[in-house]
């Protein structure tokens, strides 16, 4: 279905690189389970008669995973291999006329398919992709325009082996039924499928890096291909309709880095009028054009034009504090699983992603730690626009091996590449609680892995702090982050009520693991309590799990007991002279975990105003 591009309403699947139109390919697809893994040998990709259902004996609503009720199937499997099929017509693609008239290209895009995908069009293999949380694309122009047939058949094979614990999977369970802290799986296509018509020489990726001290913005520009002759790229930056900067650069290669001067940043006393923060989430609108001057006669033709945006802000650490725009900033964060009962890791719709950000802010938080999941770019868009700091995390594997290292490293680099321009993301977290590196305290190889991940992240993005292993057993982190589920404020006050706590970080901590491993260098990193709380309270029985199977790290008997426990814990955290911030566990109930501030349907367990007073404490202002 052709859709007019809109970044303002948060519906575009790639909100930081928007063209005028795009075509939504979500909706009803045909689905086949391939538990015996016979589809490749059986040439299922060549089954292009949509009227002959054959093995494609189910209908599924994309992008919802087949395990979810929203997909129309609700079969939690396990089914290690899924096949999808649907029609694709050039006539239905927005901007199709430009393919024949101007030689434009049709690009098919997948926002995320878990975990390994192969894609065919009319039985011709387009290619494959590994990594369940990152986007990929294929140029399908030649196949769509070849021959006389106006209906083409798109086939996707998705392999998501639930038993493979070297595969990055986060909170998705490797057992048939969810247990302890792990949830039902999200397999196959789980984020939007779409296509767009683009010029042959077109912008493929933009990487914005603000350099406030230098009064500039650095831009990494990637074109779809090397231009046959040099082109000019023109950049225009505006803030609330006021011109901030114009910049032109001659481009000879596929990838170019250039610097755009922003004079409004020169006056350090007035920078706060243009910088981004949760309190003032000012976004700079960017227009990027690719221009061709033809034979050099002075006339220029616009080859491609995209709309983007960025935020002028810095994120760092110093003086034992987290720094935003160079100043100490106390972080009030909440752990977010990004899971919905009817649609699992896929949001029910684009509006639900906006509402999630709004709820987090209404509760009094200024940050969110999206846990063991790379969130939909539209969620990040609303965090950018509404003002919410985000800890950029990824799903971890459960085992350590060379293959596990290869898989997570490759996917993590794609994650950083995808999200590097979002001002809301202020910290990168590639590893959590030694998942996949369970012996990191004693195994030099696992220690080298976490150190390398942190260093590699800084190499591709030196503009943000990096946490090597959130929770404990840090090797090389820019913040010392601790997970501590003490059930009383008195215990938290004892542990974090004195500056001497830093001297104990190398001791064994409540989880039985050291916070800092021997050799970790103290460069003055701030300390944050990035998981705590987890109080169980079930005023409304959950829909997916019997009440007796729900759990938390401690339990409240009624609403007043719940409020008292929250106040006890958060008051101790607020009073700590050591902590630079916190992350409360967690935002919503999720399956058997009934320790949310909201239930699974996003209904608050106490009035929002009361929760906000408890969460903000004396730091409300």
Automatic annotation (TrEMBL):
Leader peptide range in chain numbering: none
Pfam families: Glyco_hydro_2_C, Glyco_hydro_2_N
Listed name of the protein: Glycosyl hydrolase family 2
UniProt-listed PANTHER family: BETA-GALACTOSIDASE, HYDROLASE
Family (UniProt): Belongs to the glycosyl hydrolase 2 family.
Molecular functions per Gene Ontology: hydrolase activity, hydrolyzing O-glycosyl compounds
Keywords in alphabetical order: Hydrolase
Alphabetical GO biological process terms: carbohydrate metabolic process
Glycosyl hydrolases family 2 sugar binding domain span: 25-159
InterPro entries in alphabetical order: Galactose-bd-like_sf (IPR008979), GH (IPR017853), GH2_Domain-Containing (IPR051913), Glyco_hydro_2_cat (IPR006103), Glyco_hydro_2_N (IPR006104)
Domain Glycoside hydrolase family 2 catalytic residue range list: 321-471
């Amino acid at each position: 279905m052709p859709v007019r591009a809109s970044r303002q309403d948060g519906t575009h699947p790639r909100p930081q690189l928007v063209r005028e139109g795009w075509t939504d390919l979500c909706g009803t697809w045909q689905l086949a389970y391939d538990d015996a893994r016979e589809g490749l040998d059986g040439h299922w990709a060549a089954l292009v008669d949509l009227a002959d259902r054959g093995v494609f004996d189910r209908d599924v609503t994309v992008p919802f995973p087949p395990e979810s009720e929203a997909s129309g199937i609700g079969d939690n499997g396990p089914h290690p291999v899924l096949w999808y099929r649907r029609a694709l017509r050039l006539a239905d693609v927005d901007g199709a006329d430009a393919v024949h008239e101007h030689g434009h290209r049709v690009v098919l895009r997948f926002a995320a398919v878990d975990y390994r995908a192969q894609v065919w069009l009319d039985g011709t293999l387009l290619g494959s992709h590994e990594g369940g949380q990152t986007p990929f694309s294929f140029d399908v122009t030649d196949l769509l325009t070849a021959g006389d047939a106006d209906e083409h058949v798109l086939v996707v094979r998705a392999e998501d082996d639930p038993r493979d614990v070297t595969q990055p999977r986060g909170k998705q369970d490797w057992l048939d039924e969810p247990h302890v802290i792990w949830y039902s799986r999200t397999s196959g296509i789980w984020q939007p499928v779409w296509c767009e018509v683009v010029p042959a020489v077109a912008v493929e990726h933009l990487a914005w890096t603000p350099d406030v001290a230098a009064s500039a913005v650095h831009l990494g520009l990637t074109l779809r291909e090397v231009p046959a002759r040099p082109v000019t790229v023109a950049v225009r930056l505006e803030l609330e309709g006021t011109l901030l900067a114009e910049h032109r650069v001659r481009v000879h290669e596929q990838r170019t880095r250039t610097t755009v001067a922003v004079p409004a940043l020169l006056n350090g006393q007035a920078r706060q009028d243009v910088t981004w923060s949760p309190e003032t989430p000012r976004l700079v609108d960017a227009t990027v054009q690719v221009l061709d001057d033809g034979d050099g006669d002075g006339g220029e033709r616009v080859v491609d034009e995209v709309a983007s945006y960025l935020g002028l802000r810095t994120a760092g650490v110093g003086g034992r504090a987290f720094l935003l725009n160079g100043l100490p900033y106390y972080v009030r964060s909440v752990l977010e699983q990004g899971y919905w009962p009817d649609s699992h890791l896929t949001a029910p719709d684009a509006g639900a992603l906006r509402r999630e950000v709004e709820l987090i802010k209404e509760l009094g938080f200024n940050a969110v730690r999206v846990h063991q999941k790379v969130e939909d770019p539209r969620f990040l868009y609303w965090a950018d626009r509404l003002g919410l700091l985000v800890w950029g995390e990824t799903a971890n594997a459960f085992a350590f091996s060379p293959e596990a290292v290869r898989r997570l490293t490759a996917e993590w680099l794609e994650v950083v590449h995808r999200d590097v321009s979002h001002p809301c993301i202020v910290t990168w977290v590639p590893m959590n609680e030694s998942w996949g590196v369970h012996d990191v305290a004693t195994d030099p190889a696992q220690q080298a892995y976490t150190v390398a991940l942190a260093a590699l992240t800084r190499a591709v993005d030196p503009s943000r702090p990096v946490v090597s292993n959130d929770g404990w057993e840090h090797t090389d982190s820019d913040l010392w982050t601790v997970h501590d589920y003490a059930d009383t404020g008195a215990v938290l006050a004892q542990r974090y009520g004195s500056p001497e706590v830093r001297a104990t970080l190398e001791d064994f901590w409540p989880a039985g693991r050291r916070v800092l491993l021997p050799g970790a260098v103290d460069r003055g990193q701030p300390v944050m309590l990035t998981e705590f709380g987890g109080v169980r309270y079930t005023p409304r029985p959950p829909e997916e799990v019997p009440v007796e199977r729900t759990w938390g790290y401690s339990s409240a008997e009624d609403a007043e007991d719940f409020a008292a426990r929250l106040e006890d814990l958060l008051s101790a955290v607020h009073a700590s002279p050591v902590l630079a911030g916190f992350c409360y566990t967690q935002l919503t109930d999720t399956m058997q975990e009934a320790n949310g501030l909201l239930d699974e349907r996003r209904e608050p367990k106490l009035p929002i105003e009361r929760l906000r007073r408890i969460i903000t404490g004396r730091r409300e202002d």
